[in-house]
Specification:
Layout lengths: L8 E5 L4 H12 L3 E6 L6 H4 L8 E5 L12 E4 L6 H4 L3 H22 L2 E7 L26 H21 L3 E6 L2 E2 L10 H11 L3 E4 L5 E3 L1 E2 H13 L8 E3 L4 E3 H12 L5 E4 L14 H7 L7 H14 L4
Helix pairs in contact: 1-7, 4-5, 6-8, 6-10, 8-10
Length: 318
């Protein structure tokens, strides 16, 4: 008699990226079969190399702007360049990845009756006029700026998710991810935590944009991945959108000082003008995640920075 696997088959798009690779690890540890799909635009084989011998793991090179025909039970849609340097490199492709990628993955979910989670972003709030931002805030987004390909692409993807939910009764989940950091971040993509760490480890000047008083909140990657898994598996059919991040707020100056202290670096701070549309403050309100998912971050910035610094110290090429 033919044997069918009872293991959950989970597709992770963007699975060879920073967040995706940690999510693949977590899903394998949870006993799932994982199909990692990536076009390697910003992802890297080295991020998932340690998983290739695992028989429950499969890697497929594919661009989500094209339809995908596979059989799966759940889809985590993470494919999209996430840092300004990468998403502004080919802005048209960025919008295509968000919008056509969402359409293709939602179509796949519809055909296979899979549950599907969208990795949305705090950038849907744009340059917010209220702090911290609850999910009910509609945002303050410039539709024609240089960040718009990402912000508006992600907003349109959310629209598509909710329309597929209303129109086709799809089981969707939408998480709005705030700044997340950890091992396997790109070393040179302009994101502040990796920037500061790499500059400090090389003994280079640490670049602060503006006067360094703008604030960000930073969530450690394993906390984020845990929230995504809880969101996918919540039995109450809570679809979101839900903010996921760490509400602890730090100025860029505080972050730079912590990195210098933890690396023991002699780097100096240098100041450069703020890029256009750069938000002054960004802090998640995570009350909904606490209430609906019983989730809150557990890794303090200092602990997460130590692990991230260790990664950049020891990874050749990173
Ligand atoms: N890291 C954060 O702080 C953060 C914050 C908010 C939202 N997000 C979202 O989380 C997701 C993952 O972000 P990340 O930080 O891991 O970035 P990342 O760049 O490391 O990962 C994105 C992955 O998607 C792949 N990809 C890009 N375009 C693709 C395409 N057309 N087809 C197939 N694969 C494609 C890349 O090669 C890469 O592996 C993104 O959707 C991003 O918008 C991340």
């Amino acid at each position: 008699m033919k044997q069918y696997s009872l293991k959950k088959r989970v597709l992770v798009t963007g699975g060879a990226g920073f967040l995706g690779s940690h999510l693949c690890e977590r899903l394998l540890a949870d006993g799932c079969d994982v199909l990692c799909v990536d076009n390697f635009f910003t992802g890297a084989r080295r991020n998932i190399e340690h998983l290739l011998d695992n028989r429950a793991f499969e890697l497929m090179r594919h661009d989500v702007t094209f339809p995908l025909y596979v059989e799966v039970d759940e889809i985590y849609n993470l494919a999209c360049p996430a840092s300004p340097i990468h998403y502004q490199f080919d802005p048209v492709q960025t919008t295509k990845t968000s919008v056509m990628g969402a359409i293709n993955m939602l179509g796949l979910a519809k055909r296979t009756k899979a549950k599907i989670l969208q990795a949305s972003t705090s950038e849907v709030y744009g340059d917010p006029t209220i702090h911290p931002q609850p999910e009910s805030y509609w945002g303050n987004v410039n539709p024609i700026g240089t960040r718009s390909c990402y912000d508006e692409g992600k907003r349109c993807a959310e629209t598509l998710f909710f329309d597929y939910h209303r129109q086709h009764n799809l089981a969707i989940r939408v998480v709005r991810i705030f700044n997340t950091y950890g091992p396997r971040m790109h070393p040179n993509d302009g994101r502040v935590v990796s920037n500061f760490i790499v500059q400090a480890l090389r003994g280079n000047d640490i670049t602060i944009y503006g006067d360094g008083t703008q604030t960000r909140s930073f969530c450690y990657v394993t906390d984020l991945v845990d929230a995504m898994a809880r969101m996918m598996n919540n039995g109450a059919n809570f679809v979101g959108p839900v903010n996921i991040g760490n509400p602890g707020e730090f100025t860029m100056l505080q972050l730079a000082e912590s990195v210098i202290r933890l690396t023991g670096s002699k780097s100096k701070l240098v100041f450069q003008p703020l890029p256009s549309d750069d938000p002054k403050q960004r802090q998640p309100n995570i009350e909904l995640a606490r209430a609906k998912l019983g989730w809150q971050p557990t890794i303090a910035l200092e602990e997460g920075l130590k692990k991230t610094i260790e990664y950049f110290r020891t990874s050749p090429g990173a």
